Amino acid sequence: MLRAAGVGAGDEVVVPAFGNVEVAEAVSLAGAVPVFADIDPATYCLDDAEVEAVVTPRTAAVVVVHRFGRPADIAGLHRVGQRYGLLVLEQGESETPYSEVGERRQRASYLSAKLKGVRTPVGSDGHTFQQYVVRVPGNGRPDRDAFARALRGRGVECRVPVKTPVHRMPGFRRDICLPETERAADETLSLPVDAALTKRDMQRIVATCNALGGLLQPAF
């Protein structure tokens, strides 16, 4: 898409650092330079104000990645694009069958109502919950990783959705501060909401998380 739009050498393309490295790699393959902007902590997608803050005369495009089944504020990002004459491209996630989306939403709603030891997703408008991502309170990555190990040890599958932000990876390392991106990488954990999970499975996830969550206190 970038090449077809004429984006190439000498251009900059704004991309998120929270997520897969393939987006930054695609920008580089097109001959342009990836520029990282911070995310909205609620959606984990690019924040339009943060995108606007990194726009320069060389900026040609923005690649918006919808994250975890939750859409970005595409209207706000298009406004930034129109203001500066930028191409706004969207990268979606794999399609989920409608029936499965409904079941995932039911399980996500159950978790959000019952979980006490973690911070649950904020809002759910348009969310398909391809991943149900919570934040583990405490001291960031050490407590999140300990929490994940404890869950797995009790038979609850979970995973860290983004282990390393792209701006901290070799080849794309930048000496920049993206506080929301780094905080999200340190605190987030994906819990299962698959359609195959039974009511007993969901109850076990809640009971295990809540028992562990009481051991973690926010750092001051």
From TrEMBL:
The keyword Acetylation does not apply. GO terms for molecular function: transaminase activity. Keywords: Aminotransferase, Pyridoxal phosphate, Transferase. It holds the Pfam family DegT_DnrJ_EryC1. Belongs to the DegT/DnrJ/EryC1 family. This is DegT/DnrJ/EryC1/StrS aminotransferase. It comes from Streptomyces graminofaciens. The lineage of its organism: Bacteria, Bacillati, Actinomycetota, Actinomycetes, Kitasatosporales.
